[in-house]
Specification:
Protein name: PTS galactitol transporter subunit IIA
CATH architecture: 3-Layer(aba) Sandwich
CATH topology: Mannitol-specific EII, Chain A
Pfam families: PTS_EIIA_2 (PF00359)
InterPro entries: PTrfase/Anion_transptr, PTS_EIIA_type-2_dom, PTS_SugarTrans_NitroReg
Order of helices and strands: EHHEEEEHHH
Helix content: 40-55%
Radius of gyration: 14 Å
Number of strands: 5
Number of domains: 1
Distance between the termini: 10 Å
Largest sheet: 5 strands, mixed
Length: about 160
């Protein structure tokens, strides 16, 4: 379950960033400062995003699920950012389709086998437009965890 691994210290419900690089610096920097990732993590996110975009258009709301290689990770975690204003990402699998991301699920993946399972669970939760709407509207960290928990329990 995703919600069991969530930590309020890794949730930014009012993230202000003007670019994906600023998202990486703030949210990735949080993973570094909280001891989940090495100092190389933020730069590795930036580099990986150029070759493997992580934006996903989920109907009315764009999301991004940035992550990088395990050598930059100390222990697994998920950081969540809800952006005040959407930030430009490219659609996963392309380098020319824009996604204006409002919600970021940044992964610190230590075990590559868990990566795909975790990604699938996140996408199952986020396919629900009502859940997406609730996540971007709340400013309460615990409420974000509760919304995800409630949806996961329905799956």
């Amino acid at each position: 379950m995703i919600w069991e691994d969530l930590n309020e210290n890794l949730i930014m419900p009012d993230l202000k960033a003007g670019s994906s690089d600023e998202v990486f610096q703030q949210l990735g920097g949080l993973l570094v400062s909280e001891g989940y990732c090495k100092s190389s993590y933020v730069q590795a996110l930036t580099e990986r995003e150029k070759d493997f975009p992580t934006g996903i258009n989920m109907g009315n709301i764009g999301i991004a699920i940035p992550h990088t290689d395990k050598e930059h990770v100390i222990k697994g975690a998920v950081a969540i950012g809800v952006l005040k204003e959407p930030v430009h990402f490219y659609q996963m699998g392309t380098n020319d389709e824009n996604v204006e991301a409002k919600l970021i699920f940044m992964l610190a993946v230590k075990d590559p086998k868990e990566h795909l399972v975790f990604l699938q669970r996140i996408l199952m939760v986020l396919q629900d437009q009502e859940v997406l709407k609730q996540l971007i509207e709340t400013k309460n960290k615990q409420e974000i965890i509760n919304i995800i928990k409630e949806k996961e329990e329905q799956l």
